[in-house]
Amino acid sequence: xxxxxxxxxxxVLSCIGYGARSTIYAVCETRTRQIYALKRxxxxxxxxxxxxxxxxxxxxxxxxxxxxxxxxxxxxIYRRKFLTITELHLLMDLFDGTALDVVRPSELQALLDVxxxxxxxxxxxxxxxxxxxxxxxxxxLINHENKCKIIDFGQSCKIGTVKTRIQGTxxxxxxxQVALGPLTPATDIFNFGASLYWCVTDxxxxxxxxxxxxxxxISAAAIRKLVPPHEIxxxxxxxxxxLILECVENRPSSRPPSMDAxxxxxxxxxxxxxxxxxxxxxxxxxxxxxxxxxxADTVT
Length: 300
Hints:
Helix content is about 30%, strand content about 20%. The chain is an alpha+beta fold. The longest helix is centred in the middle third of the chain and has 21 residues, at about 110-130.
């Protein structure tokens, strides 16, 4: 069992997750007795400076949120030794949920309801002028009421940003992220579509830097081939399969024009869908081992 750290001004209740060079705890502020999630990033060397910068960026963006599907940040606390920052603590909303890559709804309608909420949260970010830039099942939490919360805004940035290094998660990353092109709402649409593809097929979209987990068993050409979702699960509505394929088009201009458009098409599919069950391999419900932690798979 992990020993919980002592953090001034807070009672640490439990460890609830991990990120890139960070640990997230459930804490109680001793002065107010308010419960929060606290992301703790410790600086061990100058190599950690970029992770400190990511937390600062996350706070600058997520402190502005006021949407039920977006996790809001409330305070950024600096810990210093002399003039050097030794730790950063990001105080955030605590959401009692589990990552979508660990527990997925077994009914298609419940899953589409989650992705409708995600699309609305992302549409709000886009209206504010930002992209998330790392949407994936690990960054979507769901609770027992099927409500969701998008988390981890460390790679988020203003629309049109051109990054100087590749950032993203290999199995969900958009081509323009790999090519160091401008990041736009279309980037989130690709990440979103790749996440939905995995949820309904239990397979990954081939991307420019996908991890070739089975490269000893199948050819590189087979790895690059994207199989339409309805061919993997014939019970999926054709409209949903087509939407997913459009979301993961290589050219940003070939993807749906906005996240609002994606939401509208999801809503239509949701209203027309019967009680479709997902593939048995996708019905984890907490019993099937989940993919590796996000921090191990993310290019930061």
